[in-house]
Structure prediction request, 333 residues.
Amino acid sequence: MPSLLGGGEMKTELMKIKDLKKYFPIKTGLFGKIVGYVKAVDHVTFHIGLGEVVSLVGESGSGKTTIAKCLLLLERPTYGQILFNGYDITQIRGKRLKDYRRNVQAVFQNPFLSLDPRMNVYDIVSEPVQYHMKLSKKELYEYTSRLLEMVGLDQSFQAKFPHELSGGQAQRVAIARAISLNPKLVVLDEPTSALDVSIQAQILNLLAELKEKMNFSYLLITHDLSIVRYISDRVIVIYLGKIMEEGPSEYIFSEPLHPYTQILLSSIPDPFTQEVREKTILRGEPPSPVNPPRACRFHTRCPYVMDICKEEDPAETDYRAEHKVFCWLYAKK
Ligand code: SF4
Prediction:
């Protein structure tokens, strides 16, 4: 089934992530001596096109949320560059940081944790608008009402508080606030995984509609490949902080190359058709990111492991245009 948003064509680059690393120090003792590092993200390079939907997928602990936090500057990278409109934002402060935050917004998994319980829906959505746009009271009311309408909430919701909303309604409020300043990029961190299955489809459709209207880019973070295919132009598969495979959505779903991608694809029923695929179970537990396996990080769990996989890291193989994989099975001789 094609992506709701279409895709496949090359998009102008909005963001370029170059050789990103995020290591968290492990400290011990009274003086906080550093005894090691959790290598949450290691040498990750990718880009997000203008108006493009890119999905980062992998198990929990794969590093995808840490990548999102680095892009949102909730974490500062240990190493590497994040170029936004060609400008490195990893060290920005002050006005530049404020401008960047206006352009890059986020919707998180649990809307109730991201909505202030003391504010009503109108105040939650209008607060960033008033801060950045300085509208008159009438203009602010009209602007906020329009935003709420766009996410499917009528006027009766304006005076409600978060505890009076269902999960789906609360996520609509979070989305209205995220798009309120007309951002260039919206990071969606597991935006449907805390919702009922029937509501998940509604929220996915809403996100697709809004993207069509406003043409911002999405970076979708999820462990669930079944929702990815409906919304993504491009998919990046992450395992233990490293990219395993990257390509246009239609290639990843029709011809997944990396053994890890193939196993992920055999998961969870489709939320739209409820079709259940034959599930392949990943053997063993994910290794610790403190001491990841050398060479191919997936070799301790891979059904096709060879001697070379334990000795050398597989280089990038360009399997076809825009579709690359890091696996010795596809290395060019
Ligand atoms: Fe499996 Fe080897 Fe490919 Fe790693 S490089 S995924 S161990 S076949």
About this structure: Residues 1-9 have pLDDT under 50 and may be disordered. The pocket of iron/sulfur cluster is lined by residues 258-259, 296, 298-299, 302, 304-306, 309, 314, 327-329 (CB under 6 Å). The two ends are 34 Å apart (CA to CA).
